[in-house]
Structure formats: C-alpha cells, structure tokens
Amino acid sequence: MDNQIVIKTLNKLLQGQYMGVHSYEEFVNNLDDSSPLRNRFITIQKDLKHHADLLSERIQELDGKPATSEGIIGKMELFISQIFDQPHDEKDILKHAIKGENLYGIKMTEKLVQDKLDEKSLNLVHNILDKQREHVDYLKSELN
User: Fold this and answer.
1) What is the pLDDT of residues 80-113, one digit of tens each?
2) Any alpha helices (H) in the chain, and if so which ranges?
3) For labeling, which of 46, 53, 60, 88 is most exposed (least CB within 10 Å)?
4) Cβ pair 120, 58 in contact under 8 A
5) Contact 62, 3 (CB under 8 A)
6) Alpha carbons 144 and 132: distance in angstroms, whole number
7) Gap between the Cα atoms of 50 and 24, Å rounded
8) 3-30 and 119-143 helices, crossing angle to 10°
9) Distance of alpha carbon 129 from alpha carbon 107, whole angstroms
C-alpha cells in the first residue's frame, strides 16, 4: 500500500472529524443550557476530537503531515449550512446531528477508505466508525 495514498485518505478523514467538531460546537451553542442533550453533545464532540488526535498520530507515524482544519471546502460547507440550514429546536438539532453522523461521518468514510488503507489504519478507522455508530444509535433513541 502506497503511504502517500494512505496519508491523503487519512487526512480527508481528519478534515471530516474537524467538520464534526465544529458542527457539534454549533449544536451545543444552539441548545439551551438546561437541555439534557447539551452535555451528551459535548461528550460526542470530545469523542470527535479524540478521533482527530488518533488520525493525526497515525498520519505522523506514516511520516505525513496531519491536516489542522476542515479545509477550505469544509469551511464553506459549514458556513453555508449555518446560513441556510440552521436547526431551531432540539428535534431539528437531533435530526441534523443524525444526518451528519450517518451521511458524512459513516457512509462517506466507508466509501472513502475502500481499498486505500493499510491494515493498521483500517483498524483505526473501523474503531472510529464503531464509535460513530454508537453516537447515531444514541441520537436516534433521543429523537424517539
């Protein structure tokens, strides 16, 4: 497996983690301080930060330079969603979080990593995906 392909793929995943961190920051800011979801969303955000750290470490192990933000495209997507797709209540926030975790967090990751990672990197990504699936299960349980 070509290390440069692995590093490039891991960096794309890392940028996605940063997008998730910033999305959850927005969700937390839009939740009332008394909302029981607030602390759980902060915990999910901490998980995403931890995942970003793990991906950064793996990239460095491969002698690559980890991304430090969500990148230009990620920043633009976040900006546009803040303007046009702002959730207004807890139910909307939960729906946005589920969509983000499912579509961007899980499905795009599965597609992105296909045949592009070495075994150690793939194991790391599978562990991250397992945690993101737990997030989705929790969010769905709160929605119902």
Assistant:
1) 565 556 667 899 999 989 988 998 889 989 999 9
2) 3-30, 36-61, 71-84, 90-99, 108-113, 119-143
3) 88
4) yes
5) yes
6) 19
7) 14
8) 20
9) 9
pLDDT reported for residue 76:
57
CATH class of 3-143: mainly alpha
The Cα–Cα gap between 117 and 15 comes to: 16
Given a contact cutoff of 8 angstroms between Cβ atoms, the answer to whether 64 and 10 are in contact is yes
pLDDT at 140: 95
Q: Give burial (CB, 10 Å; 0-12/13-18/19+) of 89.
A: exposed
Burial of 26 (0-12, 13-18, 19+ CB in 10 A): middle
pLDDT score recorded for residue 105: 86
Q: How many residues make up the chain in this entry?
A: 144
Token reading at 32: 């009332």
Q: Please, where are the H alpha helices in 70-118?
A: 71-84, 90-99, 108-113
Question: How far apart are alpha carbons 115 and 126 in whole angstroms?
Answer: 13
In degrees, to the nearest 5, what angle opens at C-alpha 26 toward C-alphas 135 and 128? 30
User: How far apart are alpha carbons 9 and 124 in whole angstroms?
Assistant: 13
**Distance (Å, rounded) from C-alpha 141 to C-alpha 11?**
31
